[in-house]
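User: Predict the structure for this protein chain, please.
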Amino acid sequence: MRSISPLLRRRIVFSLAMFLALSTVGAAGVQAELDGPKPNDRNVTLVVSSLMKRQHLLRHPLDDEMSRRGLTQFLKTLDPMKMYFLKPDIDEFQANQDKLDDQIKRGDIKFAYTVFKLFLQRVNERVNAVDGLLKLPHDFEVKEQFNTDAENLQHAASTEEANERWRKRIKYDLLALKSDKTEGEEAIRKLTRRYQSFQKRMAQTESDQLLEMYLTSFTTGFDPHTTYMSPSTLDNFRIIMRLELEGIGAALRVVDGYTEVSKVIPGGAADRDGQLKVEDRIVSVGQGEEGEMVEVVDMQLSNVVKLIRGKAGTVVRLGVRGASGGDTRIYSITRDKIKLEDSAARSVIFEDGKKDDGAPYKVGVIDLPSFYMDMEAARKGVKDYRSTTRDVRKILDDFRSEKVDAVIVDLRRNGGGSLNEAISMTGLFIDQGPVVQVKDALDRVQKYEDTERGMAWDGPLVVLTSKFSASASEILAGAIQDYRRGLVVGDATTHGKGTVQSLLDLGQQLFRIPNPPNLGALKITMQQYYRPNGHSTQKRGVLADVVLPSISTHMDVGESDLDHAIEFEKIDPAAHHQYDLVAPATLQKLRETSLTRREGSEDFDRLLKNIERYRQFKKQKQVSLHGETFFAMRAELNAEKEEEKQFEKQANGDGDDKKDEIVKRDYYFNEVIAITVDYVQQLGSDNKAD
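Assistant: Here is the predicted structure, written as structure tokens:
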């Protein structure tokens, strides 16, 4: 694989060597002011530009189109709610939008500093104005709205218009705090502290952080997973990959100034605690049982992570608002390390229905949070090292000895993992053949096959998926579907991430020596996955054979919800066997029977109503600032949440939390089991894969 040209490498290595030598002389530990690009910024920019041109999957040039995308994303990163920049500022920036690509190819990032300095000026102006706005007598009887739809919102044309927008934001903030039982002088102090804290954090932005923001704004114009990591971000990434991170076990992102949960890591502290959910917004963080709750709205994500991260065994308190709004709830979570066994496959056998002889059907369920392998033990030659395939094979052996009638593999919270394990585990359910195809930027296609003859389970199989099932889990589900080996049941589609990223360490790219300097890294999309039938999983995901209603289907958490996601496409199918276990008539009958059951279910009726409420909430682009209306809406949302909580407890049986349950046998999973039993009955005696 080509990287950067030898001539460019020699030039950059020389200038970097000079910079590194000179940087050891001077006042150590003194933070340089953010007054302009640093000497190594140009070199890092040149390397990133070269690697994007030569190695990105799309082979798209860094041109005017990417230049416009990059500027749009950079401004969105700095000012997501369009509260700081004015329309004349944007017009001035956009006058340069077709020049930025040429500047980056020359290693010139001075424009980033020009934009950021004006941003700091606008932040200072707005925060200084907040004091006056907080002292205004706000009339909560006036029926007016605060626009929360930043995508369709224009920047304020003048300072006067900006002040009016901020007046409404302050009014909204005061109402939100009042609903959390904070008002009067305490509410004013809290908001003053929040915005002054944001002002200070922005002023403390370092050159590496600005370089990361700027270059990533352009790389994500190619696709959302290609990013530049600064040296500090790369260090954090390596910590996570070593699974040495002690914290709550949640992936976070910034959405409209809020820290939002994008994923709850299987086996982590938050997963075991069971309260924190995807799309929850963390608005404050406190240390221990009594520590002060620190406001984190508009805080840099790296700083939020530092507050949440801590030693295993210590407590962190999170102030959380749900995806649908409502009051702030405080969750106390004990930090811990993610342990391999907490992410490992687990199993349970359920009984349901009746056979002709009166005996119940036995359904074996495998809960699989990720595709894992103990790499260190494998390298050391440990005979019984842990891996997904080994663990699942043992479970299937137990299922056979227990004479189960069908197997369900639950991938609803499986975000991926080891590609090799996804391939080898798929091989437990097929005889042999291609499992996934991978295409690179030169259109070269490589097939990855299960080469081991035989199956660990050849009976009826159901793969349970959700919109959170991603990457490696989509490979397994797609192959099972293409081979017509079993049913895919669950959300309308899976996550839809069908691309492969590689981490290119920039120091290693430039210095062919051991332990090169840390210059950050480029996480770059270089390949794309395809199913045996030639269809990509990208954006489209794996469509369920039998769709069950769920709120997650309607959440904006899929690949297709991301800006500039690479498009779905097809390549030639790979020759593969098709079993006779999923016929069109069978699918039609299963769908009809399931729908009839759900139509007579109060539980599913309630779920459909909750889904409709959620969809209506998502459509709302404005929030009422009329006090009575605002609090009535909050009360309704909180009542619905409490209702849903009680509903979930009732569905689980005795109403107690069952955190150690392998699978919650609630109304939803009961329907999955019912579909599985229907499937076994329809297959009859001809239920083996051959």
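The domain at 346-501+527-683 is CATH 3.90.226.10 (2-enoyl-CoA Hydratase; Chain A, domain 1).
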